[in-house]
Amino acid sequence: MSHPLPLSLESARRLAVRCQHLAGPRPGADLDGLRQVLGALRCLQLDPVSAVARSHLLVLWSRVGAYDPADLDVLLWRERWLFEYWAHAASIVLAEDYPIHQVMMRVYPSGESGYARQVRGWLAANDALRQHVLDRLREKGPLPVGGFDDVAAVPWRSSGWTNGRNVERMLDFLWFQGQVMVAGREGRTRLWDLTERRLPEWAESEPLSQEEAVARAAELALRALGVARAADIERHFIRDRYPGLAEALSGLEAAGRVVPAEVEGGGERWFVHRDVLGLLERGWEPRTTLLSPFDNLICDRERTERLWGFAFRTEMYVPKAKRRYGHYIMPILHGERLVGRLVPRLDRRRKVLEIEGLFPEPGAAADEATTEAVGRAIADLAAFAGAREVVYGEKVPEPWRAAQSPGPVSAPAPGVRPSRP
């Protein structure tokens, strides 16, 4: 067994940031650049909150800068290089990873939890609704949820917003099973169609065994993370769908695909993928940007705190009086460090990006170079979101406030449309 690769915290952070395309030369803000980033990340979490812009749009902006969101639609709906499915949450994923996701499709709903039993029982009781949905799609698809009749024999019961939404529940369960796909969107309304019509012909459809899928997904997750423990891999990409991960990692290590590592600050066992080792030798080219609350770099809160000492929690669902920072919080990445939190809000009617607060981390450098770099990132965010002006609130402290330049922001580059809500 080889000796673990020793990594300082700084080196581990830099490797993680590089693997996420958040340092070094930016990929192009075109289709090829988006493919490069998405090929590294493997998934973009979808979230309805759009205090500035939708999360999946911001994740790409943080890496490539100003781009045309219509290009993402090209990859999704025209080229079908991407599709929507459940990764570590509802996500945009790569069609080439279909065999990995197909493992979940084949067995859903599995397990003996109360919820799994409820879903199986409800599906068995509503086979007529299932057949109606599939027949209607075959005849008329793509269709929105309103394109189907509710012929459920037994209504779906829950204590949340899904209660009684029988057609929506059936579409969601058929989506989990891989029988239907999202074929497009009208605003936020999903259009559904049969998977057999949407999955591109070039996509690999030969089923993988569960062991093969776990090994392939673990390699992809580790490449995206840069450096990770088994628990970090378990919570990334296809979260909680890595049965036999320890055996898979042992096999990958024996094959020389991954190498063990030891990160400063503890005796835990970490791993680095062979394909990214060369990044450790490259010159450091830091960048400064702002991250979506659901950005791939920080979506695992425990790993974020372990590597960066940054305890990050969203406060969207915290009562206003109990919030420490604000409704929508964007971590500030400066080089390999998370140096603070920004609380922005886009007033779309006035086309103003309001910075309600900026909260530097204890000990974060507030030198001129840092504060000006953060100011430029804020101005770039405003331009991408379609704001014409940035206004700073009282919770932006000195000297950070002194480095900001309230007022008009530069327009997006020619051909780049502001992000949609």
How are the elements arranged and paired?
Blueprint: E1 5-7, H1 9-19, H2 31-41, E2 43-45, H3 55-64, H4 69-78, E3 82-86, E4 90-94, H5 98-107, H6 114-125, H7 127-140, H8 166-176, E5 180-186, E6 189-194, H9 195-198, H10 210-225, H11 230-234, H12 245-254, E7 258-263, E8 270-273, E9 288-290, H13 301-308, E10 330-334, E11 337-347, E12 352-360, H14 368-385, E13 389-395, H15 400-403, E14 407-408
Parallel strand pairs: 1-7, 12-13
Antiparallel strand pairs: 2-4, 3-4, 5-6, 7-8, 9-10, 10-11, 11-12, 13-14
Task: Summarize this structure as a short list of keywords or feature phrases.
three-stranded mixed β-sheet; 14 strands; 421 residues; globular; six-stranded mixed β-sheet; alpha+beta; Aminopeptidase
Structure description:
Helix content is 37%, strand content 18%. The chain has a domain of 121 residues: Aminopeptidase (3-Layer(aba) Sandwich), CATH 3.40.630. It has 15 helices and 14 strands. Strands 9-10-11-12-13-14 form a six-stranded mixed β-sheet, covered by helices on one side. A three-stranded mixed β-sheet has the order 1-7-8. Strands 2-4-3 form a three-stranded antiparallel β-sheet. With 421 residues, it is of the alpha+beta class.
